[in-house]
Task: structure prediction
Amino acid sequence: MYSPLADRLRPQTIEEVAGQKHLLAKGKVLRQIIDSGKMPNLIFYGPSGVGKTTVANIIAKNCGKKLYHLNATTASTADIKEIINSIGTIESSDGILLYLDEIQYFNKKQQQILLSYIENGDITLIASTTENPYFYVYNAILSRSTVFEFKTLSKEDIHLVILRGLQILANEKGKKINISREALNKMSAAAAGDVRRSLNMLELCILTAEEGEEITVSDSLAEEILASNSVRYDREGDEHYDIISAYQKSMRGSDPDAAIYYLGRLLAAGDLPSACRRLLVCANEDVGLAYPQIIPIVKAAVDTAMMVGLPEARLPLANAVILVASAPKSVSAHDAINAAMQDIERGIGGDIPRHLQNKHFDGEDAEIKGQNYKYPHNYKGHFVYQQYLPDNIKNKKYYIPGDNKTEQKFKEYWSEIKK
Result:
């Protein structure tokens, strides 16, 4: 059965793993854990193709425990229970090591099922994820695990792996393989730190090259294969979140050039929904009350983009992105609602003042009869002092005007009215 080159070349020892020296070099914490043979619960976080599964497999082979491997994209609750049922059996007398790939696809209930067995040591968990574990992994599991971040590999690391792959392919074919140094360098760069991707491109070059007594990969063939793999973007992986994060942060940071570049990255990958969603969020969160008119403008641009689709959608979105990046910024509304919701979640508040309640009658026990609500429009300037917040937070200030002209103008207006 056919096995991809990336699998045939998969390292069998820690020393063979490409990159990740910040984790695997002698003296580093993860390396010390591996060498000790005493395995805590681990979570590996990082983009695809950087060695998470490889390192987990090496650990599993050396720890002496019964190994189970689940992929959360396809595993069910029944699969988890089958592993739990094997606890205490002869074959798992030394304990169970569960390697759970893509843990972010397990819902909270599935993760909770594992929790008690992780706590008492019946199951040792090694989980991997391409997404930020602090967003997607249940807090109780996180608190019982050590998180290690795997980094994107350097061009030099990838180049060494490609040379090893080239040697293996030459040995398997029994022929010399001719490929230019320039093509190999471009392949190393185009892989964008993903070992699997680099080896897939190399193998595709060899499979489609002219084959005689020797195998020759022309520069034009290499260029064609590299071009077809030029956009590194996985909508379900961490790369997705890296790009949209950079996209929004560039708009927030008032850099229209960077914002347009990341918009282009999203659109080149066909990810119109993410481009629109983040743009709407940024208009409300980062521009907000400094230029409130921007919100309907951006909404109109997004509606237009969704209506016309790609490639034309790039035009209204480019207009809106440059506008948002160039606009004055304010997070006063963002900070106000976050502060209010934080108090609500902490149970800070109380009963709504009587004069604001939707009641038009009084019980016999009411100390003060009558609702006594004051209708602001009956007063000069459409304003009258009365208490709106509950008693125990009646003097709380959630909204603090930003230092932009729009909010300062409102502040000046209300200061005059309320004085």
In short: The first strand starts at residue 42 and ends at 45. The chain is about 50% helix and 10% strand. The beta strands are 42-45, 66-71, 96-101, 123-129, 146-149, 177-179, 210-211, 215-217.
